[in-house]
Amino acid sequence: MNFLELAxxxxxxxxIISLPFIALISKRKSPKKAKNAIILNLCSFFAVMALAVIFxxxxxxxxxxxxxxxxxxxxxxxxxxxxxxxxxxxxxxGCGIAVASGAPAAIGAVAEEPKSFAKSxxxxxxxxxxxxxxxxxxxxxxxxx
Length: 145
Hints:
Distance between the termini: 31 Å
Shape: flat
Structural class: mainly alpha
Order of helices and strands: HHHHH
Helix content: over 70%
Number of helices: 5
Strand content: under 5%
Radius of gyration: 22 Å
């Protein structure tokens, strides 16, 4: 069961999520239908993961004593690591969105007037600061664990 859990299950999940890409490459689906299929696959994947976290099914965790089980349930370190990962991940996504809209505008402004380089650089750096804030928050969360 360990080999199944460690190797085959993530491979199966990856294959299921990548099915729309295979259909798109083989020209069976239009790009819009493939995009909708990918979004549906990702949403269903995260819904299943959320349900697995909210309603854990017993019998899969092998605990030797009831004491160890109680300690594992009361341990909040796992949630702290998830919070740290979310702060870095969502901060990086926000940074990407900010830089994706700010950098082309800054390049266009510098191309028209080279004196505006410093102002443009400030706006792009403010967008990148969002990722740094997420990284700092993650270090603070992990430091509390």
